[in-house]
Each structure stands twice: as C-alpha cells, then as structure tokens.
Design brief:
The complex is a heterodimer of chains A (306) and B (301).
Chain A (H helix, E strand, L loop, with lengths): L1 H28 L4 H6 L5 H11 L5 H13 L13 H36 L4 H15 L2 H15 L15 H26 L3 H8 L4 H38 L5 H11 L2 H29 L1 H4 L2
Helix pairs in contact in A: 1-12, 5-6, 5-8, 5-10, 5-12, 6-8, 7-8, 7-10, 8-10, 9-10, 10-11, 10-12, 11-12
Chain B lengths: L3 H12 L9 H10 L2 H23 L31 H37 L1 H15 L5 H10 L3 H28 L2 H8 L4 H37 L11 H8 L8 H28 L6
Helix pairs in contact in B: 3-4, 3-11, 4-5, 4-7, 4-9, 4-11, 5-7, 6-7, 7-9, 8-9, 9-10, 9-11, 10-11
The chains are: A mainly alpha (306), B mainly alpha (301).
Chain lengths: 306, 301
C-alpha cells in the first residue's frame, strides 16, 4: 500500500508543475498590458512603469515564475485590482460558504442517488427502474440555473417558505444544495445501477440466494458492498463537477462564495483573483482525485500491484 | 446504460431467418437501434430541431428582435404562445430563432474538440512512449480544471462573446476525446489485422488513417452525441453568466438571464427558454444513450 501511495504522490508532481505554468502564463495571455490594467486607464506612462516594477513584470519570465511559486507558498498571491485587498483575504472569506454548499450537496446527492440506483437495479425493467432512470437522465440534462430559478419561484416567491438567496441561516442552504446536487445524484444513480446489476449476476450472489438469505440481505449486504468500489471513484470525480457547478449556482442564489467572486472578477478583469481562484479550484480537484485514487487502491487490492 | 436484454433480443432478431440474407453494418445498426424507443423519439426530436434551426427566422411568427412596447411581459396566450419579454418580444419566436445558435454552438464546439482530440488520441496511441506521455500530461492539465471552470478561464483571457464560447468549449472537449480515442485505438492497434498490415509494409499514416481510425469510429460517434448535450448546456450556462451571447441575441441562456429581474411577476420569461434548453439537451443525451447501447454496449457511464 505504501508503495502505491508514494507512486500516486510522485505522479501528481508533473501535473502540479504544468498546472502552475498554465496559471502563471494566464496573466501574460490576457490581451493588453497587465501593468496598465492595474494602474488604470488614466494612469500616466510613468505610473504604469512604477506598477510594472512593483509587480515584477519587468523581470525575466523565469524569475517571474519563481516569484509566483514562492508567493504561493507564502500565501501571497497579489492584490485584487478591484478592491486593493490581498487576494488571499478575499478568497479566505469566501471559502467556507462554497465548501459547505458543495459538502451538503454531495451528502444528499450520494444518498438519494444510491437509493435510486439500488431500487432501479433490483426492480430492473419495471416501472420503478424506468422512472428512476428517466429521472436520472433528466437530472443530467436539466440546466442548473433553470432549476434553481424554478425552485426560487415556487418555494421562495410563491410559498415564501425559504429565502430567495444569500446566506443568512441554515435554511439558505436548502435550495442551492438541492439544485447543485441534482446532477450528481443523477450520475450516482445511473452508475450505481449499472454497477450493482453487474454484481448481482455474480456467483456468490446466487450462492447467497441459494442458501436462503432474504433478498434484502443479498442486495444491501453482499451486492452493494462490492458494487460500491467503482461508485466511490465516480462520486469522487463528481466533486469536481460540483466545484464547477457551484460557479453557476452561486450566481443564481447570490451566494457569498468563490464562484460568484470568480464571475465578478472575470467581468472586472481582476486577473490576480481569477488566477488565484483557478489555482485553488485546480488544487482542490487534484487533491480530491488523489484521495479517490488512494481510497480506490485501498478498496481494490488489484490496482496496487499494476 | 447498457441494456443486455435488449441487445440479446436484437441479436436473436439478427440471427433469425429473415436476416440471413445479406446484412450490411448499417442495416444491422438500424435493426438494433429501432428497439430503443426513447432514443428513436429523441432522434426524431433532434431532427425536428435541425429543421427549426435551418428555417428558424422564416417560420417564427414574430420578429425576434423588434420591440413591441404595447405588449410588454404578457403571459401565455394564443397570440403569444410563450408570452412576451420585457421588450414585448414574442418569446416563442425568440426560442425558435435561438435554436440555430444553440445547435450551432453545441455542434461546432464538439466537432472542433473531437477533431483535435481524435488526432491527438490516435498519435498518442500509435507512437506511444514520450509522444504519448506528453499528450497525456497535457490532457491531465486540462482535466485538472473542474467542469465549466476551464471554459471560464479561457473566456477570461479571450473576452466574452459567442465565438469565444465556441473556442472555450472546444478546448474543454479536446482531452475527453483524446483519452477515449487513445483507449480504443490502443485495443485496435494490438489486433491481428493491424499487425498484418504493418508487416506487409504499410506506411504509418495509412495504418493510422485507414486501419486504426475506423476501429475507433463507433466510440467517437457515441461520445460525440453525448458531448453535444453537455456543450449546449455549458454554452447556455456561460451566456447565463453574461460571458457568452450578448443581448439582444436570442440565445436561450441569455434570455433566461434577462428574465431573472421579472421572476416574481413574470416567471414565464425564464421558464420557456429553460424548457427549450432542457428538452434539447435531454434529447441529445437520450439519443447518445441509445447509440451507445447499440454501437458499443461495452461502454458504461
């Protein structure tokens, strides 16, 4: 197991390296002069030069890259053009709302998705299966912003049960989590159905049935345990889509999180914030994938000896 | 979702007496595909959408951009099936005209991504070694940005607009195709007939293009259909966020975004464009599912 962990850890180093280069180059790919962008349109040429000096943009590119990386390790990723505050502070205050939103979305999505998947697999080709799978493909096809607005329309505007948007109390989490998690629930349902169906064909399931175990025990005790292995991987990967999805959902629900900050920053061309957010999202995603890989290796010994 | 029972039935049908006569791959495909009723219905729906996309402005009952300040924010009626928006424009007409935009953006961006991704995947599988490593590492980097984030990053560089949305979604699709094509090309590469062709001295280009590429075609077609739905959804999301189509373009996501201000009084302004996106994406996804079950039952989600 230890060898496997080390192998995976070494494996992500080149990815981290290339991702950091990609994000570093980001500023240089934006059309126009970044120093001019920071100094403002009315700044004199001299002011622009001063800003260029301050940001180190006049140094050779490899030195700039080095500064960029050492800045990340010191928690210094520049200042927001829009507010002038350090990017680190801007992001830190937005991190938790996004984290909890994705967390709760994931929790309900996995539970409901698994339930639908198991019911569909055991009631194969019956109406429960058709209903579940049609619901799942609908969940994948539904534009999240549309679903969010429909939920707001019904539960916030008409019934007045839940807040329209923003983050004030625990009730604020309900509608955004439902919206954000629905796509993941759909994917989990489809995936656990096909995974469980494969497993239920296996010999040891037949043995379980033959020795008189009740169907409930066979499915939940024997089948699901083994069907879970690929589902875990799939679910982990869905975390990335939740992170991406949160960008849209946060805009719909005026959520004070990272996603809305990103969209505001793109509109304002606040590139230090965009850069830091891209980096953070990518790091989170790489980290989650790593954890998923490790869990997978732990659950499935075959993988470790490849 | 692979549906082995349907496949079994289809296999039996293929073996039965009536089909002992010559059966071409297309005939066989059609026989299997016909069993997938949902996919068939979706296919017909997609076909209708294509017709609407081609003739859109000609069949729309009203102008899509001309304001009509007498009929602002009207609900559904026989005159305006989906009501009117804040400028009095007929939403139904705007949805019809917008079909072309959504289908075009979805198809072209997946097509561009598929072409580049397929070439990279074929090269990666065929040459292996360092070429393969480099291409796959680039894919890893692109995959490191979750979901829509890569597209937003690219638009942050290029600036908002529909053209840039197409570029962003194409790039977003490249690694996906590269990996899938690489995977299936690797298995084709190790088959006996490719080995045989190689041993009689076929050139690399010919080997890849004439012998390996056709073997990967079914996985490309399936993935292509499945990705169009996602591409339309992503494009609509970007327009909704204000990064794609700009007003007064009748793009569905942008229309929905405009309706947000009237959510409490006129929910129909957001409802119908969203429904159009939903049904279109649903049709492409169901069609993709059906094609996958027919062409490539081995692939699962």
């Amino acid at each position: 197991m230890l060898r496997y962990v080390i192998k995976r850890l070494i494996g992500i180093i080149p990815i981290l390296f290339f991702v950091s280069i990609f994000i570093f180059l980001f500023v240089h790919l934006i059309p126009g002069d970044p120093a001019r962008l920071v100094a403002g349109q009315d700044a004199t040429l001299q002011d622009v030069e001063v800003v260029r000096q301050e940001l180190g943009l006049n140094q050779p590119i490899h030195i700039q890259y080095f500064n960029f990386i050492s800045g990340i390790f010191q928690g210094d990723v520049g200042s927001s053009i829009k507010t002038g505050r350090p990017v680190f502070d801007e992001i830190a205050s937005r991190f938790m709302p996004t984290f909890w939103l994705t967390f709760w979305s994931m929790i309900w999505a996995v539970m409901v998705g698994l339930l639908i998947g198991v019911i569909s697999a055991t009631k194969r080709n019956k109406w429960q299966d058709y209903l579940g799978m049609f619901g799942a493909v609908s969940g994948i096809s539904m534009p999240s912003f549309w679903m969010g607005l429909l939920l707001i329309q019904v539960f916030a505007v008409q019934l007045g049960w839940l807040p329209v948007g923003g983050l004030e109390s625990w009730q604020s989490y309900i509608l955004p989590s439902i919206t954000l998690g629905s796509g993941v629930a759909a994917v989990v349902a489809r995936f656990s159905r096909s995974s469980l169906m494969d497993i239920l064909k296996d010999d040891y399931i037949r043995t379980g049935r033959a020795k008189g175990l009740n169907e409930h025990k066979v499915v939940w005790g024997h089948g699901l345990k083994n069907a879970m292995i690929p589902v875990v991987t799939m679910t982990g990967l869905q975390f990335g889509f939740l992170l991406g999805g949160s960008i849209v959902i946060e805009t719909v629900f005026s959520w004070p999180g990272l996603g809305r900050l990103l969209i505001d920053s793109v509109a304002f061309r606040d590139y230090p914030v965009i850069q830091a957010e891209m980096l953070l999202f990518a790091l989170e995603f790489i980290l989650i994938n790593l954890i998923v890989d490790l869990i997978y290796g732990f659950l499935n010994p075959q993988i470790r000896y490849d | 979702m692979a549906n082995p029972e349907t496949a079994e039935v289809a296999a039996k049908v293929t073996l039965s007496s009536e089909s002992v006569e010559k059966s071409s791959p297309i005939k066989e495909f059609w026989k299997k595909f016909k069993k997938q009723r949902l996919a068939m219905v979706s296919g017909i729906f997609v076909f209708l959408l294509i017709i609407i996309a081609i003739f859109g402005p000609a069949i729309a009952p009203y102008s899509s951009e001309e304001p009509d300040y007498v009929n602002v924010l009207q609900g559904s009626s026989w005159e305006h099936l989906a009501g009117t928006d804040a400028f009095g424009r007929d939403i139904f007409s705007r949805i019809i005209v917008g079909t072309r935009i959504s289908l075009f953006v979805g198809t072209i961006s997946v097509l561009l991504g598929a072409v580049v991704g397929t070439v990279l995947g074929l090269i990666s599988a065929f040459y292996g070694r360092w070429v393969d490593s480099i291409i796959m590492r680039i894919c890893d980097v692109l995959f490191a940005f979750p979901g829509i984030l890569l597209a937003i990053g690219i638009i942050a560089i290029l600036g908002p607009g529909l053209g840039n949305v197409i570029i962003a979604i194409s790039i977003f699709n490249i690694p996906n195709f590269a990996r899938i094509v690489r995977g299936s090309a690797l298995s084709v590469k190790s088959t006996v007939y490719v080995e045989a062709t190689k041993s009689i001295g076929a050139k690399n280009g010919r080997l890849i293009w004439k012998h390996i590429f056709p073997g990967t075609a079914s996985s490309i077609i399936v993935n292509f259909t499945m990705r169009i739905g996602t591409a339309i959804l992503t494009a609509a999301s970007l327009s909704f966020l204000g990064l794609g189509a700009q007003p007064p373009t009748p793009e569905w996501g942008a229309m929905l975004s405009n309706g947000r201000d009237y959510l409490s009084t006129s929910p129909h302004v957001t409802f119908y464009p969203g429904l159009a996106i939903f049904l279109t994406v649903l049709a492409f996804n169901l069609l993709g599912d059906g094609l996958r079950d027919t062409l490539d039952p081995k692939i699962k989600d």
